[in-house]
Amino acid sequence: MAKVIIAGGGLSGLSLAWFLKELRPGWEVLVLESEARAGGKAWTIKEDGFVCEKGVNGVLDNKPSTLALAARLGLEPLKSNNAASRRFVIKNRHLVQLPASPAQFLTSKLLSLPGRLRVLAEALVSKGDISKDESLADFARRRLGKEAFKYLIDPMATGIYAGDPERLSLRSCFPKIHELERDYGSLIRAMIKLQREARKKGKKGPGAGPGGVLTSFATGMNELVDALVRALGPAVRLNSSVASISKQNTGWRVFLKDGEEFEADHVVLACPVKAVSEALKETAPDIVKLAVKINYPPVSIVCMGIKQGTTENPMNGFGFLAPSSERRSILGSLWDSSIFPNRAPEGYQLIRTLVGGARAPDLAGLPDSSLVDLVVKEFSELVGLKGTPEFVKIFRWEEAIPQYEKGHQALASKIDSTLRSYPGLYIRCNWLGGVSLNDCVANSERLAIQLTS
Ligand SMILES: Cc1cc2nc3c(=O)[nH]c(=O)nc-3n(C[C@H](O)[C@H](O)[C@H](O)COP(=O)(O)OP(=O)(O)OC[C@H]3O[C@@H](n4cnc5c(N)ncnc54)[C@H](O)[C@@H]3O)c2cc1C
């Protein structure tokens, strides 16, 4: 029987504990979570009839990991409304709908005619140097042209990473896209070929977008957290902040900030870079030296309840993103009550707006009143908001979304190989192996299988 300690009760840590318990019910597994609640960035707050996601909004259903876990816990998934397929991008101070299909792309106003023709010419662009760790921006300009970069790819970097496309690595952030160029020489040619092959098998081929439907649960992402916490019972300890760990003759010793100690055969650090660096500074300074290179900028979220009819734009859709070239002070906005049912009381809309990220980390630190003023000003210009929102809630993440910048893949491999000189020590958190919840859960399942086989 092995003893496993998991430091961090976000969904990486909780799902890892659950998979371990499923595979080896007799093992002693303990999740130590620093906060008074588990779940990390998956956290639903219910107030005044509004259901606000403090962080994670949902998962795409085209990767099975999270929803398969949810099904095993007996949860019913909730797919986003059809309206959520309408996504907008700011162009010249106006919201312009993103084309959702190749046919819509041909007539879309988002790109000029030369811009659209340049995208179609992607099929003729020769394959780049595949060995190079290229930035998302360089890749997009090279293959799709400057305009498509500005209005399609730059907003995508904002929407997923709150990141700077000049620094984000294509192969680390969007490995599938990198592989399409590597294997087919062109994204358009790859799409045509894969569509054709899929049709032959009677299946639907890949589309131009991210694919998949955003999916959550009737009362929000907390349903998944609560179900895991219930299933794990005493294996989750709250208010237990890990301060340091040290190597023993056999196994590891884990020290909490309050002085309590635990012994374990395996220790998994499932927390953000700062906590991992603190915990390992004496025991594994070589890992800390590498981990601190990962940029983890802050994001603040302004959640607003707005009376229906007080905006000129009905805000019926997924929301909008702000390309860097538009120089807005917000990153974008999610129209939550249009994405999922029952997120706002009758007659109200629930809107969440993101501020900060790699593009403007300082703005995330503005005081509450300045953040609200900034968002209200943007909304009056962009959607014609009259007056002020009746419900406001502000959420702050000091370490929000880790940035997989150029060189990330080499850095992650180095961390991986360095960890091998510390048998029994592992890291599982969204700053390695993929930022999405689906990636986190899949990585945890893989580690559980590795540890138990
Ligand atoms: C605003 C925002 C929106 C997002 N939206 C989505 C989305 O819609 N879909 C999606 O797939 N992904 C989304 N993400 C990414 C999401 O963060 C990850 O998918 C996933 O939730 C990360 O889980 P994790 O367990 O790896 O890390 P975290 O959720 O960060 O969990 C780490 C845990 O470690 C704990 N901890 C910290 N220090 C210590 C310590 N010293 N001792 C013990 N415990 C400690 C923390 O309290 C926390 O509970 C979003 C992220 C942010 C910030």
What does this structure look like?
By secondary structure, the chain is of the alpha/beta class. It has three domains: 3-41 and 225-294 and 404-452, FAD/NAD(P)-binding domain (3-Layer(bba) Sandwich); 79-83 and 297-397, Polyamine Oxidase, Chain A, domain 2, CATH 3.90.660.20; 102-200, protoporphyrinogen ix oxidase, domain 3 (Orthogonal Bundle), CATH 1.10.3110. The protein has helices spanning 11-23, 65-72, 102-107, 113-120, 136-144, 146-161, 170-173, 175-184, 187-200, 222-232, 273-280, 285-291, 336-339, 361-364, 368-382, 408-419, 437-452; strands at 3-7, 28-32, 44-47, 50-53, 59-60, 77-79, 87-91, 94-97, 214-217, 236-237, 242-247, 252-256, 261-264, 266-269, 299-307, 319-321, 332-334, 348-356, 391-397, 425-427. It has a seven-stranded mixed β-sheet with strand order 8-7-16-17-18-15-19. It has a five-stranded parallel β-sheet with strand order 10-2-1-14-20, with helices on one face. Helix 1 (11-23) packs parallel to helix 17 (437-452), helix 2 packs across helix 17 and helix 12 (285-291) packs antiparallel against helix 16.
